[in-house]
Structure formats: C-alpha cells, structure tokens
Amino acid sequence: MQCVWRGGLVACFIFLASHALAQDAVLERARALIQASQGAAAYRLLAPLEQQRAGEVEYDYLLGLAGLDAGQYTRAVFALERVLAMRPDHPQARAEIARAYFLMGENRAARHEFEAVKRAGPPEAVALTIDQFLNALDARERSRGAGFSAFFEAGIGIDSNVNSASATSSFAIPLFPGLQFNLAPSARKQEDQFIALAGGAFGRYAMGNTWSLVSNVSFDRRMNAEHDEFDTGALNASVGVSRIDELDELTVAAQGQRYSVDGEALRDAVGGVVQWRRNLTRRDQGTVYLQHARLDYPDQPSRDADRTVIGGAWAHAYGGLNAAFAGIYGGREKPRGDNVPHFGHDLWGVRVGGQLGFGSRVILSTTASYENREYGGPDPFFLEERHDKEFQLRLAAHYLVDRRWTAIAAATFIDARSNIVVNDYERAIFALSLRYDFR
Known about the structure:
Largest sheet: 14 strands, antiparallel, barrel
Number of domains: 2
Shape: elongated
Number of strands: 16
CATH superfamily of the largest domain: Outer membrane protein transport protein (OMPP1/FadL/TodX)
CATH topology of the largest domain: Porin
Structural class: alpha+beta
C-alpha cells in the first residue's frame, strides 16, 4: 500500500512539473511572437487561458502586451491592472497601461500614467518615447478642445541661387529677331549665405462638444549676407471653425498672406479653405480640400489673379516615428486683367514623402514634389505659350534634443524647367536650424 501511495505521489509530481513546464513554454512562445511583431497571434494563444492563469504577473503582462497589439484594448487594460495590483512598482506595466489609455482615447488617464512613469526616472530612451506620447496628447487635446501651441526656429544656410535666375546669361528674344540679349550681372544666378527666422502660434477654443474656433499665425524671413535685395519674408494668418466627431474633422477657414521681397510687399493673398479629414483606419488618414485666394500685386496690377486649387492626400502611420504620405492637386490661376492671358495658368501636381525614426532621437524625412504649369497665352516677347515643370526634393534630419528642442539639418533641391529660357533654373539650399516648441 505504501509503495502504491509513493508511486502515485511520484506520478502526480511528474504530471505537475510537466504541466508547469508546458505553461512556461506557452509564455515563452507568446513572448517570442510579441517580439516578432505578431501580437495578434500571441493574443490568440494566451486569451483562452485567462480564466485559469489570471493573477500570474508574467502571464497578465504578456496578455496585456498582446492585447494592445491585437486591438483588444479593454482586455489589455484589465490584464495590466492585475499586474499593477500585484506589483505596483512594475514600470513596464505602468508604461503599457498608459499606452492602452492613449489608444483608447482616455487622454487624462494616459497623461497621468505617462507622467508617473517619467517621474520614476526611466532610461533616457524610454523618457524620450514618453515625451513623444505626451506631445501627441497635447496635439490631440488641442484638436478636441481649448489649446495653444507655438514655436520659434532660427537657422543659417547657403543658397546656390537666391534670385532663382537662369544659368544662361545670353539669349535671343523672338520679338527682336537677330538680336542677342545679355543679362545684367545682378540678374544672373547669385549664390549667398543667409540667416533664417520662423515662428508661429496655433490656438483652438472649444464651442460645445464638436465645434471649435481655430486660428493660426506664422512668419518666416530669409536675410542674405550680401544680396539683401533678394531677402524674402512671408506673414500668414487664418481663422475659422472646425467640427470633429469620432472619425471626421471638417474645417472652414479664412486665410491671408503677405509675401515680400527686399522688405516690400510683392504679393497679397486673401481667401479661404474648406478641408475634410477622415480617419480611415487606426493608421490611415485621408484628406480632401478646396482652396481659393484672390492674389494682388501692389506694384504690378496686371498680374492680379484669382487662384483655385482642389486636392487630396493620404497618410499612413507605420508605428513609432515611421510614416508616409502622398497627395495630388490641380487648379487654375486666372488673371483679372484684360489682355494678359500669359499671366494665367492651369496647374497640377503631386507630393510624396515620409519619415523614419532611428531610436528615440533621430528622424529622417524626405518630401518629393512635381508641379506642371501650362500658361494661357503666348509670351509677348518669346511669342510662345510658357510651359513649366518644377521638381523639388527635400531631405532633412531631425535630432530631438528633448521634448521642446529640435536640431534640424536640411537640403532642398529645385529643378525648374521651362520652354522660356529666363524661367529655367536650378537651385540648391542647405540649412542648419534649431527649433523650440512652446507646449
């Protein structure tokens, strides 16, 4: 009898040990799936065991991670709350429950948890990631209710062609056959160094649950070291209303701009925009817009025109700091003056770009664009209708010093091709700047 009892005890021990090893194997498998970005598969593995294993810290933590990746936010929060009930000092669980609240739209709870993790003094990479979530919360709260943000940026750089001049210094004009014209030295391609300043502010005031009053003002100024006659500046302002619900945002706003050269107004623009933005999925967003502006040239009234543009764009967030976008637009700039059709043009263009995050500090971004412009009448001197094709490429590296300071290195390349030789040019701009965001 004693032998039978002992044999049964050994068999029971072997069964329990093998069962425990099997359970540990399940956790190891789930951990491997999560690390391989297969959280949904890990969730399907762990979820059926919740009734038996709820209360085990490691199981609940992995279930919480897998639930977040699978979009099961409520189940993830329950699991992570069980972890914190057993281990209130579990920093990873607290950070993940903050992320869960963020994904669920529980802004106040997410901010509370993120700030709690940051006060605990996490590693630098974790602290920077938390700053990114806090910045996203700031932007989300501004979009939903009252909020204010501003920035200031200063930089230096070099421009290979500050006056966007043709590389050709001598050319013929068909209106005067047989004659060769030479550009004055000041009208030729000029290279120069510059100082750049920019800044802006955005505000939103909630008017009920869905409507908000929105406003924006910004400026930028370029000051050349030698050729100050080509200094440029722009002042922009807009004010309007915005309606937001769960998936959509509709904005209607009045806009204005003054663009100046050498301190004198070259062009004033007054108009408005209607924009509709929709969250297509958790990671995809689509936008369509219609913009109209009245353009006035104080010193060249014959160039006054009405400009209308319609367009659309798509953006996709891959997770972390990685994202991509693409857009297309078309429109017309119609002169208001008589007998100047060559100042007007039809236009269309495309833009594509994206960004990649490396670690928690470095972001590399690129934007490429193409615009096609076909003018409405023969140029009075060159006796043919102008046709421009403009390519632009911008490459930038952003270094996030902390939540407010960002160092930026950027290169912009422009290739403007035209059948009218004086409008054909190339340009390269290299700049270093430092930006401060007021949050």
